[in-house]
From TrEMBL, chain A:
Function: Required for the export of heme to the periplasm for the biogenesis of c-type cytochromes.
Intracellular or extracellular location(s): Cell inner membrane
Transmembrane segments: 21-39, 45-66, 78-95, 101-121, 128-152, 158-181, 193-215
Protein known as: Heme exporter protein B
Upper taxonomic lineage: Bacteria, Pseudomonadati, Pseudomonadota, Gammaproteobacteria, Oceanospirillales
Membrane topology annotation: Multi-pass membrane protein
Species this protein is from: Marinomonas phaeophyticola
Gene (UniProt): ccmB
Automatic annotation (TrEMBL), chain B:
Annotated membrane topology: Multi-pass membrane protein
Primary location: membrane
Keyword Transmembrane applies: yes
Domain of life: Bacteria
InterPro entries: Cyt_c_assembly, Cyt_c_biogenesis_CcmC, Cyt_c_biogenesis_CcsA/CcmC
Protein name listed in UniProt: Heme exporter protein C
Positions of transmembrane segments: 21-45, 57-85, 97-116, 128-147, 159-178, 202-223
Species annotation: Marinomonas phaeophyticola
Pfam families listed in its UniProt record: Cytochrom_C_asm
Cell compartment(s), UniProt: Cell inner membrane; Membrane
Keywords noted in UniProt: Cell inner membrane, Cell membrane, Cytochrome c-type biogenesis, Membrane, Transmembrane, Transmembrane helix, Transport
Annotated Cytochrome c assembly protein domain residues: 5-185
UniProtKB/TrEMBL annotation, chain C:
Domain ABC transporter: 7-204
Top-level lineage group: Bacteria
Pfam families the record matches: ABC_tran
Keywords recorded for this protein, A-Z: ATP-binding, Cytochrome c-type biogenesis, Membrane, Nucleotide-binding, Translocase, Transport
SUPFAM superfamilies referenced in this protein's UniProt entry, alphabetically: P-loop containing nucleoside triphosphate hydrolases
Gene that specifies this protein: ccmA
Species of the source: Marinomonas phaeophyticola
InterPro entries recorded: AAA+_ATPase, ABC_transporter-like_ATP-bd, ABC_transporter-like_CS, ABC_transptr_haem_export_CcmA, P-loop_NTPase
Protein name: Cytochrome c biogenesis heme-transporting ATPase CcmA
Amino acid sequence: MTYFSFTKGELLTLLRRKQDTMNALIFFLMVVILFPLGVSPSPEFLSVAAGGIIWCAASLAILMSVEGMFKEDFNDGCLEQWLVSGLSLPVLILLKVSIHWLIVIVPLLIMAPILAQMLFLPMDIFYVLLQTLILGTPALFLIGTIGSALTVSLRHGAVLMLLIIIPFYLPVIIFSTGAIRAAQSGMLYDGQIAILAAISLASLVVSPIMSAISIKASVS
Amino acid sequence: MSWTWFHKLGSPKWFFQFASRWSLGVFLSGVVLLLIGLVWGLAFAPEDYQQGNSFRIIYIHVPAAILAQSCYLGLGVAGFVFLVWQMKMAPIFIKSVAPLGALVALIALVSGAIWGKPTWGTWWVWDARLTSVLVLFLLYMGVIAIQNSLEDKILADKAVAVIGVVGLINLPIIKYSVEWWNTLHQPATFKLTEKPAMPMEMWLPLLISSLGLYLFIAGLAMLRMQTEVLNRERRSSWVKEEVLKNGI
Amino acid sequence: MHSSISLNISNLWIERGERYLCKDMSFSLSGGDICKINGENGAGKSTLLKIIVGILSPLEGTVYYNGEDVSIHRDLLHQDVLYLGHNSAIKSVFSVAENLRWYFPNASDEAIAYALSVVSLSGYEETPSSQLSAGQKRRITLARLWLTDKPLWLLDEPFTALDVQGVSSLEKRMRDHISNGGLIILTTHQDIDASLNVKEINLTL
């Protein structure tokens, strides 16, 4: 196994398992739709709440798509092969998360303008939303990976993983929606964007190492 | 400085013997201090000029809130120690302290709500500190949940250590973000801290009850850890001797 | 020809649940050896293999590969090892050939076709692995033995899923491997060809 063949394999797996990614995206769409139906369809409410709605829905969808990330590798014995491959486990994990991120975030970004229209989000605010999504979602994926690695050996680990991971998502959600709200009231939002980038970078350092520890412990 | 104490602390046998000498004393002195602090605070400390008698819940709320944070700090440090040095006592510490931490966090939440009713007029406000205690409570629940869900004990130990460390890194970020979020939401509603510095008669019982709760929790944690040590080391010869000699 | 390799197990204690699988076990192996781990079901044969390869940690004791402690220099071992565990480690979304390419990206088409023919999977190259039986998946895993150039093989029950002809070609492959200076450790219930000069390790319950 090489890093390249590993990456290629992961990409191939995700492309052949399109339905898994699709499910996460449809779930995202459904959560977004719940808000106008459940709270209020008035443009005044929605245009203010749109950023928060999209972010909450995206967080849940990402948790869903990350949750089963290592499950199949664990069940078919491939995780053992990663461990003895002579390749660095944190790097393998990082490659895997990056591919997952790419595969989910691209369609999400394509869906975003449509949803923004449906939620009456003004165009200039929409660009801020895009920035927060691009800079904030890596942190969500990376943090979620730790939870996924910890619960990989459990048959019904999904709820447990949500329980562990959601508190760690709060800062990302707070700063993303904060940036959007700041932009809406005409204030500068560079600070929040910078903090989001910082959280993502910090996760980039911590997550692969912690996930590797968790996977090693889960396999044994 | 000699590091022998550090290595000794890692040995369950040494800890057990240390704890069996100290745990009860620490626990009882905690109870006594807590009682002194509470009675003094609840009955004898002067009334607050703004809030009247309702402020007295501070003698429960503040120590509990401090303890909730300290316990998580300890948990995170223990997790780090376990991941780096594989010290056997660290997961025992985490397992014993997490439920206590959850309990004090819950006490802080409930007392905060009770305090909120007369002061703010509602049981709950999305106050930065209340919210971060709520998140803290959720973090504890996560640690407890994963500890109980994983059948493989070695994996469970690793898992709580990982969560502890990630939480330790995250806790300042969460706290900061919640505070920042709150100031954005509702700038300076009613700041309890902006009174003139507390008079001595009010402040001293608070200190005593905080210290008391520290010792109380430390004593409880030591007792819980002793049980856990006995359970984990039940096959070793020193535990057999211990049980035969002193009973359970 | 592999450069000479050695594997030393010293004072190994293995624990599972409440009981010791082995106490203070030591043995040495070097290139050219085949070592068979004997023991009943549940005696810990697979566990011992996993400890040697570094997936599990022993309670006490050390595994040395070429004189280096494996728990510290894990990479040195992992560069040289081919480990076939209890699970097939076959991705069901890949075709048979893609699975082998995942492990050996530089293997030629001929090499892969040959490896598959040995385990009687000729013509299955493009078949999705999800359509194969457990035994066939197992044989894809075994095909890796004909593609690898790693000197140290750790094989967990390699003979299951093979027919008589398959067994004899695997034995031939193992004979070639050790005559090139390779080292094989395996668990099996089957008797191995006596001419292979097998060393045996016994695990008792």
